[in-house]
């Protein structure tokens, strides 16, 4: 059980490190955010099964993470259509 917690925490830390260090492309930022959400989902699965609680909260969490992913992809597609790439430096944030 302790090994599972360690693996999940390492996934979370690695996702945050990628999010902080690789901020040139929007696609990499979105993938690192999805990796963080996946690690939090695994954390919820382990925790809720440990306390023997209902898994309905996981469905709500998955619903919000899917909405977050769809919103991120729509922003990525809109940015590529308007600017031609997904670099953060290619457009002004006025």
Structure characteristics:
single chain; 94 residues; mainly alpha; Helix Hairpins; NADH-ubiquinone oxidoreductase chain 4L; membrane; NUOK/Mnh_C1-like; mitochondrion
Per-chain topology:
Layout: H1 2-21, H2 26-50, H3 56-83
Helix pairs in contact: 1-2, 2-3
CA radius of gyration is 16 Å
Q: Describe the biggest sheet?
A: none
User: Structural class, judged by helices and strands?
Assistant: mainly alpha
Number of domains: 1
- The percent range for helix content is over 70%
Looking at the structure, the CATH topology is Helix Hairpins
Any idea of the CATH class?
Answer: Mainly Alpha
Low-confidence stretches: none
How does the overall form come out from the CA principal axes?
elongated
Q: In what range is the share of β-strand residues?
A: under 5%
Helical segment tally? 3
Which CATH architecture would you pick?
Orthogonal Bundle
- In total, the number of strands is 0
Kindly, what is the distance between the CA atoms of the first and last residues, rounded to a whole number of angstroms?
49 Å
Overall mean pLDDT stands at 88
The succession of helices and strands, N to C, reads HHH
Structure description:
With 94 residues, the protein is mostly helical. It has a single domain (1-90), classed as Helix Hairpins, CATH 1.10.287.3510. The protein contains three helices and no strands. Helix 1 packs antiparallel against helix 2 (26-50) and helix 2 packs antiparallel against helix 3 (56-83). The longest helix is centred in the C-terminal third of the chain and has 28 residues, at 56-83. It is elongated and about 50 Å long. The mean pLDDT is 88. It is a multi-pass membrane protein. It catalyses: a ubiquinone + NADH + 5 H(+)(in) = a ubiquinol + NAD(+) + 4 H(+)(out). Belongs to the complex I subunit 4L family. InterPro entries: NUOK/Mnh_C1-like (IPR039428). This is NADH-ubiquinone oxidoreductase chain 4L.
